[in-house]
Amino acid sequence: MKIVLAGDVGGTTTRLGTFDFSGTRPQRLALRTYETRDFSGIAKMAATFVRDERIDPLSIASACFGAAGPVSNGVAQLTNTPVRVDAAEIARAIGVANVALLNDLEALAYAVPVLASDEVHVLQAGHADPEGAVAVIAAGTGLGEAALYRDSRLGGRPVAKASEGGRADFAARTDVEILVLRTLTWAHGRAAVEEVISGPGLANIHRALHAARCDAMIDFDRPDAPEMISTSAVAGQCKHCVEALDVFVGAYGAEAGNLALRTVATGGVYIGGGIAPRILPALTTGKFLSAFRAKHPFTAMLDAIPVNVILNEEAGLLGAANFCSLT
Ligand SMILES: [Zn+2]
């Protein structure tokens, strides 16, 4: 049996897996999770995985890796982690000729066509245009944005395109968002959208609105501060955390709507990343969707776009495997 090898390379952890791709959806056979920094490069990690799982390299039809950083000429440099992902190096290390390298959001976009209904939470059912583009947006350590284009004139095979939209300018819409924008601009000269819509962004919002005053006594310098703020907000422990999450959710919905406009995502908008599943109660209050839809005169278009939260945390890996089976 021929299999594909897939990887989801993150700044902290990396998932490697093998998949049977004979059906319509890649079926996972093996999975291992590694600490990214434990290896000098992803080639060494992939070779270790192949050895530990006793995989015959001749059984691997192709391999595909999604990496959390910009990809250029088959090489990705992870954002904020000194690890390089080099497709040619990986090919040599595992003895597989066909190794593809994608941006992590491109890989996530390739998972969308094969996601099962129990792997998503529907925020807005809408009416998906089967020919329409699909947009993916994922707030985590940063903010990732990509789109999957489907065009029958090009044979119907979906093609994902990455972006560095997270580094684009934050477009404030309300007085409170203008205050956040002004605070970030004073500090850094400019406010990128991912400085608001990301884990660190949630902490930035709390700080901009209330300095370090927090009833949940959260130390904003701790790396897990964003998780503590969202937990405190969902539990109602600190009114400032509640407000910060509320502002975050509105800004997230508005940016998802901006991405839908820019990509004409009539095929659907999918919200990935680690934050969304944890804050589902806040995403379902209506604040996210009302900000998403408020794009006059395109309100009707945005009303019809399906909006889904991706619940499967292995979706990036699945997407990398699906890319192999599509090509
Ligand atoms: Zn607080």
Number of strands: 14
Kindly identify the CATH topology of the largest domain: Hexokinase, domain 1
Report the major sheet.
Answer: 6 strands, mixed
Number of helices: 12
* Order of adjacent strands in the largest pleated sheet: 9-14-13-10-11-12
What would you say the CATH architecture of the largest domain is? Answer: 3-Layer(aba) Sandwich
Oligomeric assembly = single chain
Classification by helices and strands: alpha/beta
Q: In CATH's first tier, which class of the largest domain applies?
A: Alpha Beta
Percent helix among the residues? 25-40%
Strand content: 15-25%
* Bound small-molecule species: zinc ion
Give the overall shape.
Answer: globular
What's the rounded overall pLDDT mean? 94
pLDDT < 50 stretches: none
Describe the structure.
The chain is α/β, with parallel strands linked by helices. The chain is 37% helix and 23% strand. It is built from twelve helices and 14 strands. It has helices spanning 42-52, 87-94, 104-111, 175-188, 199-210, 225-235, 239-263, 275-278, 280-283, 287-293, 299-304, 315-326, and strands at residues 3-9, 13-20, 27-35, 60-67, 71-72, 75-77, 84-86, 99-103, 120-124, 134-139, 143-149, 159-162, 268-272, 307-310. The strands form three sheets. It has a six-stranded mixed sheet with strand order 9-14-13-10-11-12, sandwiched between helices. The radius of gyration is 20 Å and the shape is globular. It binds zinc ion. Zinc ion binds next to helix 7.
